[in-house]
Design a protein that fits this description.
mainly alpha; Arc Repressor Mutant, subunit A; 2 domains; 6 helices; about 70% helix; DNA-binding transcription factor activity; WH_DNA-bd_sf; WH-like_DNA-bd_sf; DNA-binding transcriptional regulator, MarR family
């Protein structure tokens, strides 16, 4: 086996171990209060509010029915609301509520603290290198 292939195999194994740990930890941070999909959708709405279900499904590259389900769950929690468009009454838009913004900000603080602690043992130079590598992989 070539050295490069050995490195790829070790990288794959390590990457998935780290990814699983991050996923588990983020789920713990969210505390069954909100799902990862709900958190991501709230962030999307906080950046571009309002959006239609179709726009959201295109942004996330998932089905309209999946977004509808996520929006239903967020609406039950009072984190988003649906309203008819002022320009076209046939169109329903999804808005993040003040409670949704507050929830997102609280979760963001927890995630930021987690990542600061997780990456605390890396130097600034190592963090910059890691970021550069991730950007290159995008």
């Amino acid at each position: 086996m070539s050295e490069r292939l050995t490195i790829f195999l070790e990288l794959e194994k390590t990457f998935f171990q780290v990814f699983r740990e991050f996923k588990k930890d983020i789920k713990r941070i969210l505390q069954d209060d909100i799902t990862g999909a709900e958190d991501t959708l709230l962030h999307c709405l906080s950046e571009k509010n309002p959006q239609t279900i179709t726009e959201l499904s295109q942004d996330f590259h998932v089905s309209v029915s999946h977004i509808t389900h996520v929006v239903d769950q967020l609406e039950k929690k009072g984190l988003v609301e649906r309203k008819r468009s002022v320009q076209d009454k046939r169109v329903v838009e999804v808005y993040i509520t003040p409670l949704g913004m507050k929830k997102m900000e609280t979760i963001d603080r927890k995630k930021r603290k987690y990542f600061q602690e997780k990456f605390n043992n890396l130097t600034t130079e190592e963090l910059v290198t890691l970021l550069r590598i991730f950007r290159k992989l995008k």
